[in-house]
C-alpha cells in the first residue's frame, strides 16, 4: 500500500476523531417554540380597532416589537393616536447603560415626547396622563425579581389606578417561565432590585404578574388597576422562547438570559460577572483567582453596556459558562448556587468576597438574594441542600399562590 496514502488516511481518521471529541463537548441544542408562539403585540387584530379613536400612551423599549419592527412605529402607520411614550431603564430606544439615569427627550424618529421613568420619577404623574385615554404596556421581561421592569409595571398600574385609566397589556412569554425558585424576599430588604415578596425566579409573565399585583393587594391602599390583556397564543410555561431582541444591553445571548437568574447574584460579590465584555452573566472571575482557574479574560470599558466595569483592564481568572449545558439547568428547575459556593471557597481573601467597600460596582448581596441568611450561609460553608431547605415553607406557599394568577398552563 502507498506510504503517502497511509499517512493521509491516518491524518483523516485523527481529524475525524478530534471533531467528534469537540462536538461531544458542545452544549446540547435547545428546542425553542417560536414557530408556534404568537405574542400579544403580534395579534394586532385583537387590539388595533380597540385603540382607534383613543389617545394612547405606550410604555416601550427596544423589545416592544410587532414582527421585526418597533410597535410604536407600526401603530403610527396604522393611524393610532400615540400621544407620548414612557421609557424604563435603558431608555425607549435602549441607548442607556444599566443603572444610568435617563432624561425626558423627544424621539428623533417619530417626534414623540418620551417621558423617562428611570430618571427624576418612577411613575407617570397625573399631568402625564391628562391627555391619555388608555395606557399600553408592552415590554419583554426575563422572569427575575431583580429585573426592574416588574417594578415599572407596578408603578404604571398605580398611576393608572389613581387616575382611572385602563392599562392594556400586550403579553410576552417569560424566557425563564419554567423556573420558580429562590428565597422569598424579606420585605425588610425591599429595594430597587426587590419590591415584591416573590422568589428570585417568579415564573410568570408580565400579564400574570399584573394580575398578582392586583390580587395580592400590592398597590397602595389595595387599589386595583383596570386591566385589559392580550394573551400570548399557543404558549405554556414549559415552552422555551428565544427572544428576537436582546432585553437589555448585557443580556445579549440566550446563554446569558437563561443563566441570569443564577449568575446575577454575583453582582453582590467581589467577582466580575462579565460586565466589560460581550459575555455578561456567562463568565465569572477576579484577579485574585489566578492560579485557581486557567480561564481568563480582561474587562474593558464598553459604551452603552458597562463604562466602568469591576477590574477594568485587569486580567480576571475564573469560570467560563458560555458552553454550560442549558438543558441540564432547565431540567433541574433550580437556580444554580453551586457556583457561588465553589467560588467563595476558591477566593483567598474571603472577608472581601461580599465587601461593597472595594468598589462602587459591587452591589448588596442581601438585596439581591432578598434575605439576610444567604450571605451568612455561604460564608459558613452551609451545604446547598440546607440552603435550599431554608427557603421553605415560603417558596412552596408562593408556588401555590402563583396558581391563582396563571393565564397559561
TrEMBL record:
Domain Peptidoglycan beta-N-acetylmuramidase NamZ N-terminal: 56-254
UniProt xrefs under Pfam families: NamZ_C (PF20732), NamZ_N (PF07075)
Coiled coil: none
Residues annotated as domain Peptidoglycan beta-N-acetylmuramidase NamZ C-terminal: 258-408
Matches recorded under InterPro entries: NamZ, NamZ_C, NamZ_N
Name assigned to this protein: Exo-beta-N-acetylmuramidase NamZ domain-containing protein
Organism of provenance: Pseudopedobacter beijingensis
Amino acid at each position: 500500500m502507498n506510504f503517502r496514502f497511509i499517512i493521509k488516511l491516518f491524518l483523516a481518521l485523527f481529524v475525524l476523531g478530534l471533531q467528534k471529541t469537540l462536538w461531544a463537548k458542545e452544549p446540547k441544542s435547545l428546542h425553542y417554540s417560536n414557530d408556534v408562539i404568537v405574542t400579544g403585540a403580534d395579534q394586532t387584530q385583537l387590539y388595533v380597532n380597540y385603540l382607534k379613536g383613543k389617545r394612547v400612551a405606550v410604555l416601550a423599549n427596544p423589545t416592544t416589537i410587532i414582527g421585526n419592527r418597533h410597535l410604536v412605529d407600526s401603530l403610527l402607520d396604522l393611524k393610532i393616536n400615540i400621544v407620548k411614550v414612557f421609557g424604563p431603564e435603558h431608555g425607549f430606544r435602549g441607548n442607556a447603560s444599566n443603572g444610568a439615569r435617563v432624561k425626558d427627550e423627544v424621539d428623533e424618529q417619530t417626534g414623540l415626547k418620551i417621558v423617562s421613568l428611570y430618571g427624576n420619577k418612577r411613575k407617570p404623574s397625573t399631568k402625564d396622563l391628562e391627555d391619555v385615554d388608555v395606557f399600553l404596556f408592552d415590554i419583554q421581561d426575563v422572569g427575575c425579581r431583580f429585573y426592574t421592569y416588574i417594578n415599572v409595571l407596578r408603578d404604571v398600574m398605580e398611576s393608572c389606578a389613581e387616575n382611572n385609566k385602563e392599562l392594556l397589556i400586550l403579553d410576552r412569554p417569560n424566557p425563564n417561565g419554567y423556573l420558580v425558585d429562590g428565597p422569598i424576599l424579606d420585605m425588610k430588604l425591599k429595594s430597587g432590585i426587590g419590591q415584591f415578596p416573590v422568589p428570585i425566579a417568579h415564573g410568570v409573565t408580565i400579564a400574570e404578574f399584573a394580575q398578582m399585583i392586583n390580587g395580592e393587594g400590592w398597590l397602595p391602599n389595595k387599589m386595583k388597576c383596570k386591566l385589559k390583556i392580550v394573551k400570548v397564543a399557543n404558549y405554556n410555561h414549559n415552552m422555551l422562547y428565544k427572544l428576537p431582541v436582546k432585553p437589555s444591553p448585557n443580556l445579549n445571548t440566550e446563554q446569558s438570559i437563561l443563566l441570569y437568574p443564577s449568575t446575577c447574584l454575583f453582582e453582590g460579590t467581589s467577582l466580575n460577572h462579565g460586565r466589560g465584555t460581550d459575555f455578561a452573566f456567562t463568565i465569572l472571575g477576579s484577579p485574585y483567582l489566578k492560579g485557581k482557574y486557567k480561564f481568563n479574560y480582561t474587562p474593558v470599558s464598553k459604551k452603552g453596556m458597562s463604562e466602568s466595569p469591576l477590574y477594568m483592564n485587569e486580567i480576571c481568572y475564573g469560570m467560563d459558562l458560555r458552553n454550560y449545558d442549558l438543558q441540564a439547568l432547565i431540567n433541574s428547575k433550580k437556580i444554580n448556587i453551586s457556583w457561588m459556593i465553589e467560588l467563595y471557597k476558591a477566593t483567598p481573601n474571603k472577608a472581601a468576597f461580599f465587601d461593597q467597600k472595594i468598589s462602587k460596582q459591587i452591589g448588596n448581596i442581601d438585596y439581591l438574594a432578598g434575605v439576610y441568611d444567604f450571605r451568612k450561609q455561604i460564608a459558613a460553608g452551609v451545604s446547598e441542600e440546607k440552603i435550599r431547605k431554608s427557603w421553605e415553607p415560603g417558596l412552596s406557599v408562593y408556588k401555590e399562590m402563583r396558581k391563582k394568577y396563571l393565564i397559561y398552563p
